[in-house]
Amino acid sequence: MNSKLCVVVATASLVLGVSVAGADSVGGCGWGSKVFDGQRGLAPQVLAVTTNGVLGNQTFGISSNTAGCSRDGVIRSNWRTAAYIEQNKDALAADISRGQGESLATLATLLGMSEVEKQLFSELAKQNFDTIYADKDITTEGMRTSLRETLKSNERLARYAGAV
């Protein structure tokens, strides 16, 4: 078999595997899913699966709870929340100070919180506003760190800290 035909067969196998795995799951978990997170279409899916296959990182990711993998089978990625925080720092500051608002509700949704947990998160964030925004020129990473610590301080919401 020539090399071009091998590539076509391998690609077709990967595409079939991705389509069976689920249309919304780009590459499952692993570095390929992180690199192509949020992208749609055939090419990103094939590239995500190929990246994971070449690097062989899904098994390690699942066993070590890294690279967007977890032992319970839930795929988690904080790339979207980091980008959201970066783009909405000012709106989040205003919403957190009030304990309500669209940007704060959206962040809670991105974290995967239930409606009851969203309310608890809003209240917790408001109570910890001075801690979260200890520096008026806070960086995105500083804010993420503060939000993680705030979430960890609450027994019910601590499980969301890793998603920030």
Description:
Helix content is 63%, strand content 0%. By secondary structure, the chain is mainly α. It folds into two domains: 3-64, no CATH class; 79-163, no CATH class. Helix 1 (3-21) crosses helix 3 (42-55), helix 6 (89-98) packs across helix 8 (115-127) and helix 7 (102-111) packs across helix 8. The radius of gyration is 19 Å and the shape is elongated. The protein starts with a helix and ends in a 12-residue tail after the last helix. Residues 8-26 have low confidence and may be disordered.
Number of helices: 10
Strand residue content: under 5%
Q: Number of DSSP strands? A: 0
Q: How far from one another are the termini?
A: 48 Å
**Main beta sheet:** none
Shape: elongated
Question: Uncertain segments of ≥5 residues (pLDDT<50)?
Answer: 8-26
- Average pLDDT figure: 77
The H/E string reads HHHHHHHHHH
